Fold this protein.
Amino acid sequence: MQTDRRIPARSELDGLGVYAPGKPIEEVQRELGLDRIIKLASNENPFKSSSVVYDAVAAEMERVALYPESTAPALAEKLGKHWGVEPERVFVGNGSDEIIGLLTRAYVRPLDEVVMADPTFSRYETNVCIEGGKPVKVPVQDGMHDLDAMLNAINERTRMVFVCNPNNPTGTIVGEQALADFIHRVPRHILLIVDEAYYEYVTTSDYLQTVPLLERFPNLIILRTFSKIYGLAALRIGYGLMHPDIIQELMKVKGPFNTNRIAQAAAFAALDDQAFVDRCRQANAEGLSYLARTLAELGLSCYPSQANFVLVQVPRAGTDIAEALLRRGVIVRPGEQLGAPRTIRVTVGSAEDNAAFVSVLRAVL
Ligand SMILES: *Cc1c(COP(=O)(O)O)cnc(C)c1O
């Protein structure tokens, strides 16, 4: 009689782990019995979301018995106006995470190659592997995408290229001219996905505005999200800007009601409060310079970040440091989980949280 009753799943899943998210505050509170926890582990907005979102969500509660509109047309139209693109180029997803998965679902065939940085956002690799594709990981240089090496990695099996800009987990961006050249040089039959989840946090002028390039480059896909600066991470809503032909393919593989009513209404309202976005960008920039300065005083270096987090080089395993910080009520992300050993990734919090983090870190070191 057979004892192993496990029903094998597709072999593509064999080597895959389960995504390790930053620990939720509730879980740490339960386990350690601490009452004040500071979470700087998932690049969430410490200033929550715009107050206009609360009213929009409350109003939409009237209609939760009804299915949402499948393609979020009102939001797509508003995003189109906001960015000066036709609404036919806007695809709204259940977080930009979903759009990454739909793109690989629709386009990556077994053994197709997909070029990406190392380290970069881990969902690219995972989704490519689920489809039986091959992630081709090109090491970053000083935390930055090595675009020349990525071009060299392109061959006849390449189907897709990811550029994460700013890059998670290093926080760095690629320079304006370097990315423009790269976009010109990637062959047009290869999908070029530029993930701009942290777009709104960028303050340097040496940053390529990709939206105006959409018309000239039908292989270009721009990913954005409401999870980061707009503070809607729990609602799961993001969007992609791309050629309508690509959207037609994504429509075939998406779930019928992929984004919910509450999220659509919240994102629609959030777009109106650009003053909130500006305040968050400003506070974040101040937090970044505070962290860079105080970490340097502790003898720690971090990559120059244009996002709402920094990747900090630490003298021992990141897992050790993160564990010690956790016991003192500060949750950060060990770099070992992100492909960056001997680092921790720390989200920029409120000024108060940043100061608390630095003093706890000082004690831990
Ligand atoms: C957070 C993040 C996302 C995912 O955002 P959601 O819209 O919440 O799914 C995508 N890409 C990068 C690089 C991120 O850091």
In short: The chain has twelve helices and twelve strands. Residues 11-48+275-364 form a domain with the Aspartate Aminotransferase, domain 1 fold (CATH 3.90.1150.10).
